[in-house]
Amino acid sequence: MNKKLKSFAGILGSVFLTLFGLTVVTFLIGRVMPVDPVIAAVGDNASEAVISRARVEMGLDQPVIVQFFHYLGQVLRGDFGTSVLTHNPVWVDIARFFPATLELATAALILSTVIGIPLGVWAATRQGKLIDQVIRVVCLAGHSVPVFMLALVSLLVFYATLGIAPGPGRQNIIFDGMIPQVTGLLTVDSLIEGDWDAFYDALAHMVQPVCILAYFSMAYITRMTRAFMLGALKGEFIITARAKGLSAFTVVWIHAFPTVAVQLVTVLALTYAGLLEGAVVTETVFSWPGIGQYLTVSLMNADMNPVVGSTLLIGVIYVGLNLIADLLYRVLDPRVR
Amino acid sequence: MISRRNLMLGGAAVPFLSYMSLVPAFAATPTDILVVAQQLDNMTSLDPHESFEAVGSEICGNIYQKLVHPSLDDADKVEPSLAASWEADAEGKVFTFKMRADAKFASGAPVTAEDAAFSLQRVIKMNKSPAFIIAQFGFTADKVEEQIVAVDASTLRLTLDKPASLSFLLYCLSANVGSIVEKKIALANVANNDFGNAYLQKNTAGSGEWMLQSWKASESVSLQVNPNGAYKGNIKRILLRHVVDPSSQLLMLQKGDIDIARNLTTEQLRTLQGDANYELIRKGVASLVLLSLNQNNANLAKPQVWQAVKWALDYKGMQENLVPLTHKIHQSFLPEGFPGAVNDTPFQRDVAKAKALMAEAGLADGFEIAMDHYSAQPYPDLAQAIQANLADIGIKVSLQSAENRQVLTKMRAREHQMALSAWGSDYFDPHANADVFNINKDNSSDAKAKPFLWRSSFQDAELTAKAEAARDEKKPEKRIELYVELQKASMEKSPFAFMFQVTTTAACRKNVSGVRLGTLSDSHSYAKAAKV
Fold first, then answer.
1. Which one of A61, B128, B222, B256 has the fewest CB atoms closer than 10 angstroms to its CB?
2. Which CATH class is domain B64-188?
3. 0.90 surpassed by pTM
4. Nearest by CB: A166 against B26, B243, B409
């Protein structure tokens, strides 16, 4: 019991330290960057009186250390401040922007996992053969083609030329404002509302950005799966299984694959975290109002409360997914228990 | 018998086929909804007494009305809007406005002098970024209730401590910050003594053709027609969609998912030029691209160097090759479209003349200098061209690219040497830019105010005096003449090389008409927009 408590306390301690470090670094970056946040807030043409007042209102007239502890106190009370751009509390903005990214990232992860893992396994079992080469080239392309180009080409082909996909945005204008936000996930909210047209529309708008994101994730997942499987397939237990006359399917999926599943959990967790932090370029090309766009716009406007708030959120996601991966290790690998 | 493989293939195709069946849902936009793709990401407020950037001002301009507005046909004249008439006393200190009797707010309530007085008082009391446009007439928070008074329901009186030119006052009242808000609504939504500011940032209380339905930051702005406004067209709703990427805007326009694209680049506009399916509405706006030479650098402080730089630049080459559809050559501090703007372009590339000027300055061998510039296009391209032009007269320029706020922050700290930046006018009076580019009363390093001239350490008593005389001149025609003189003097003896005026384009599908772009963003109007 004591051991478990110690382990739990250790985890909590590392989570706290990680988030505290993240807060310090992000806060300091915001304060030392060569842009005056006051000018960003009130505009370059504002009078000196307005600029001075805004500086006081934003607390920027205080020493940095005082500003930091004031901010830390706010954060500990669950107050991430207000965005200068939107005038909303940061958590309200995050509650609006994050679900859009969550919806995209989750769908992309599912798609990339469902395709990427079998492809990786297939490539490993056909090492050096034509199909392996094809899969490797496809994965290489996934890593090397710039995402904005792929996104634009996708829009050009499927939307502009063939006309079989909807354009940028999360929904058609005819549904704008018609679906009340419950979860923020448009597909789920339209189902809750019972509006099937809105659901299909939201789903259709997701297809292109999800496929683009899934392709990039899939490339990584496939390559990692292939590498892990190549190692596993060389194991003595696999030679034994083959010698016992088991079918190729059983050897690969029942004997070899479970041994790499543990490593894949880390890969998937990191991939998901990467997707959840916001695919800025994809969100930009597809006009997807997600957390990546929110963070970028805030950063470009030196609106630091949303930047620190969003960064903390991303930190929490990373820490959370790592924790989940740790827990899954215990489920999947008895040696870790 | 269907094989397992065919069954799986068929199953896999179902979502794709059903996806195709959704295509009709993505067809052209309804005729009563105007859909506009626009970059909306730097908009901070829709309270007209706070909003101080281009997109917010444009939207406010469609929601609210002012007492007066500049004539659409003749920039030198001001026309009635919510005020039917006005007069000034002989001394130029008391100004009386008679309100129009038929104007109504979106709520249906009549627009009264009480609303106008409240609105202008609100500007001074809130003292947000654009307040100085009204406050420069001497209005102060503690006295404004005596200075701005509703004499009766239809009469508004403004009393100034010092005389002012009527035309200057009218142009300032025509600015976005002069918008009249409905007093009752603003007061009903006061929180923490904010004069209804938090409410009006995201809600509407105006008498313009449109009213705000919703604003989702970095996503969309929805306007609906004001049932009590002057709009008579067939559009019931305008949806401004935040589309960052100009390429996406172009594709959406070509597919008919949007009716107007507002942020197309030169390359994208070229693809639409001459295509009968689109109309390109172009307008030179009040944004100037200029080169500032900081006078705290000994070489840049020589007047011959100012002139040498101005004669070394290849304005025509840069305009034609780098920014043909988004900028035009402009060399005075007042943008084309402003009252009294000088649109002559006396400077052109003359390397021999520029070299002679450098020699006259004792710098025949040139010098090295750093130039800050915005990192967004077209500034990097322009900066490289400037670098090449100035190299021809011996000035070796090293380029320092940064995000525009970073460049502005550096300029405000007087840390730049040369800077390529842009300046947008705050209101539609020549004094807006005459002040910025000619007046600097205190050039000391610890000056309280840090106007544009101060940032480049430039001070010229003669230009300052001329600018103030023009501002205070009571006769409108004479005033315009003074501004023309001032611009010509400034061209000759200031360390600012004005190069281009930004041209904005609204690329419209052919079924859209009546969209109008103005010189200032608050005059971009959908008041006569229609769609078939």
1. A61
2. alpha beta
3. no
4. B26
